[in-house]
Amino acid sequence: MPQALDLHRRPLRNLRLSVTDRCNLRCGYCMPEERYTWLERSELLTFEESAALVSELVPHGVEKVRLTGGEPLLRRDIDQLVRSLRAQGGLRDLALTTNGLRLPDLAAALRDAGLDRLTVSLDTLRADRFLELTRRDELAGALRGLDAAAAAGFTGTKLNVVVMRGANDDELVDMLDFARERDLEVRFIEYMDVGGATRWDMSRVVPATEIIERVGAARGGVTPEDLKRTAAPADRYLTGDGQRFGVIASTTRPFCGSCDRARLTADGQFITCLYARSGTAIAPLLRARGAAAAAERIVDLWTGRTDRGAEERASLDSRAALAGPGELQREPHLEMHTRGG
Ligand code: SAM
Ligand code: SF4
Ligand code: SF4
């Protein structure tokens, strides 16, 4: 079967599977509101449905799956989904992004089920700040999660850090020191104006150039490692003292030209771009006609894809969050925590 290509000849290679829209944190850049419209639990794809669909997408070129959410470790028996995805054999990379809080209970089971890699999101090493940024007093839990990941045998764990001016941008070097001690690779992420980021403001974005400059000043310079603009979102750098780190410059220097990422929400909406205004409900077709028919539909949608969401946003004269709270309540599929980061 040929590799599915979109209209800019970008392959469908990478699928982000959101398994829940629920979360046990309330990060200010993702879930700042008091009230949310939640997906109906009864409408979520079962693990059997998700695994069958992935199996049908592999022959069309999907080779990487990342489980995400919301907080994917809140989905009961998530290790069983990992096991089923692994069992079907065709995936080169099976990863999961988490805030880490449930890793003490789940890291060993995830490893055992065949998960290759973890990305853990952590924006600060200060307990009072963690509470301020996430509205939960859970720094110690997140750190225990990182310990548990290492104890379970995960290596190459990435540490996602969303950098916000005046919130945590004085911790760049602390984060790097922390990561070096624990053999983690930091990826500094620019604050993005995605759905859900209703408090986003350009003045709070610390551009990649500034992040690199500041790290360089503290660490004997910074050399780009591979600015070849692969499909991977992060550009990687090496500090003067030999530490590798990544920067995801989605806001100021977007990378849509090589984007091979598709998203499937927990209730089965297929979304071709993080910034897309709408998705396509795949679940009804999956349930009525099976996984092969659903995969064909996804390939059709991909084949017609022209999205360059972040680049379009970067070209706007004035920028604000993708959607306001009212619109998000009416259409929760616009939320980053629904479509998966
Ligand atoms: N709950 C998990 C977590 O936090 O790792 C997985 C889902 S979360 C939506 C995935 C990633 O999106 C996290 O690394 C988070 O920091 C990032 N994210 C969420 N909102 C963002 C925003 N407005 N700008 C940049 N990154 C954001
Ligand atoms: Fe939850 Fe992750 Fe969003 Fe934070 S970034 S609120 S942990 S989904
Ligand atoms: Fe891909 Fe859309 Fe993100 Fe651009 S904005 S990199 S097209 S998901």
The biggest sheet amounts to:
12 strands, mixed
CATH topology: TIM Barrel
Tell me the Rg in angstroms: 19 Å
Weakly predicted, low-confidence segments:
none
Percentage of β-strand residues: 15-25%
Q: What small molecules accompany the polymer chains?
A: S-adenosylmethionine, iron/sulfur cluster
Average pLDDT for all residues: 96
Helix-strand category: alpha/beta
- By CATH, the architecture is named Alpha-Beta Barrel
**Strand arrangement across the biggest beta sheet:** 7-8-9-6-5-4-3-2-1-10-11-12
Secondary-structure element order, N to C: EHEHEHEHHEHEHEEEEEEHHHHH
Name of the CATH superfamily: Aldolase class I
Tell me the span between the first and last alpha carbons.
29 Å
Name of the CATH class: Alpha Beta
- The helix content, as a percent range, equals 25-40%
Description:
With 341 residues, the chain is an alpha/beta fold. It has a single domain, classed as TIM Barrel (Alpha-Beta Barrel), CATH 3.20.20. It has 12 helices and 12 strands. A hairpin with an 8-residue loop joins strand 11 and strand 12. The two termini are 29 Å apart. The model has no long low-confidence stretch (mean pLDDT 96). Bound molecules: S-adenosylmethionine (SAM) and iron/sulfur cluster (2 copies). The site of one iron/sulfur cluster (SF4) has 12 residues, from helix 10.
